[in-house]
């Protein structure tokens, strides 16, 4: 996600400084005109606003507060925007560390996958320092088609977890429907066509369905990240005393898919876990 987002900033004329743990992934950005920094702190020192797109809560903490991390390069007048999907407690911990330097913090997880990232059509779910939201309006507008400012730190993370919990359950139900159709002797493509015309039509089913019917799962949103989001949503639901029976059942399917080795495939590969449950 980070590469297409940064490429759009470069194309829009922003001076962009990048860092990634595996340095080779910076190559396309360097070729497009970005400066490659030696560490996250080095990015922060050279930038007014630093964006981070990282896999999960441990990565967000490591890059922000670990040795050579963002916090070492932050100071008053700068801002840190974390667009990773993480939990509200991690966002609050990173916000406290960043704000301790005098800098501003905005969480801004995104809804939308690889295609929207390439097209500059992401949806930002932001919360934290409104002054940084205002200052980052230009870059957010380049990378996204909409931005929501939702209030205090944690609200953006919570919104993202709600949306992705629903998405994971929808994809799980779709995978079960395709498998059921197959067992009944129906064509999966016919199911996809029927669904597309009715009240449960979804861009996600239309986009992923034809490949799923062929057993193909080219990675846009890695299954391991969808399962991470379900796991984080279930933990928040537990803390809020909100039972999530359907979403918890969907999480079990994604856990099984990861155990079967599909973690790096697209999350639509949850279909393989459903197939694996079929009785002979
Ligand atoms: N893909 C998608 O469709 C979407 C993803 N998201 C969310 O965005 C985030 C990124 O997703 P995506 O780009 O697909 O994920 P990837 O797995 O492709 O990228 C994860 C990034 O995190 C880095 N990273 C992981 N652990 C560490 C660490 N300990 N220290 C430093 N860097 C680390 C990786 O570095 P390295 O290259 O060295 O491994 C890599 O740059 C996730 O939170 C995901 O849930 C949100 C919306 C859509
Ligand atoms: O988090 C994934 C997405 O597609 O949004």
TrEMBL record:
Zinc among keywords: no
Domain 3-hydroxyisobutyrate dehydrogenase-like NAD-binding: 154-273
Signal peptide: none
A Pfam family of this chain: NAD_binding_2
The keyword NAD appears for this protein: yes
InterPro entries cross-referenced by the UniProt entry: 6-PGluconate_DH-like_C_sf, 6PGD_dom2, 6PGDH_NADP-bd, HIBADH-like_NADP-bd, HIBADH-related, HIBADH-related_NP60_sf, NAD(P)-bd_dom_sf
Name the record gives this protein: 6-phosphogluconate dehydrogenase NADP-binding domain-containing protein
Keywords of this entry: NAD, Oxidoreductase
Every 6-phosphogluconate dehydrogenase NADP-binding domain range: 1-151
Membership in a protein family: Belongs to the HIBADH-related family. NP60 subfamily.
Organism: Tetradesmus obliquus
